[in-house]
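# nightly structure sweep
# worker-07 picked up a monomer target from the shared queue
# config: single-sequence mode, recycle default, output format = structure tokens
# input follows
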Amino acid sequence: MNDLTDSLSALQDIKSLMEKSSRFISLSGLAGVFSGIFALIGAAAAYWRVNLAPWAVRDEDTPFGTGNIVNIDTDVAMFLLLDALIVLIVSVAVAYYFTKRKAARHGQALWGPYSRHMLRNLAIPVGVGGLFCILLFYHGLIGLIAPSTLIFYGLALINAGRFSLEEISYLGISEVILGLACLLLLGYGLIFWAIGFGVLHIVYGILMYIRHDR
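# output follows
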């Protein structure tokens, strides 16, 4: 009986080792936490700026409003674009730092076949989603941009999660669900965006840190 138990335990260890060797496991939970904090700061800045210079006309076809913009102040648009770019750049820089540090600790190459697979599967949905949102902006469908970013980002995480930690896929599913909910309440896009890119990143980052980083 002990021999059978030892054999099963050995098989489980081998299975676990094979799964880890085929995945990029150096993503850091701390990177998710800091990215979420930066996203919340960016959302707060956007909310503050929009309140100071509100968009001229809003579509009120639904009880909550679609958030579509007919006339948008150029200064507001540039501020929001700069705000988003700063959040993105700082988040990527922090993610790179913590991921590189964890990869060194685990003896895993930062730029190897598994990280390339993960980034490729992440980049395609994100790239398509970015172009889709640009076209939404071009057609004045501003209220659809927030849910679209959440949905495409979620699909990207689900796609990339096959080559990384399972929490990445669960985060992606959560982002997609939140994006679909945002479609029902279009007038609250900024709030959903803050929850998706801020709160969820912090929550899943903490979970990843507890399970894999400590």
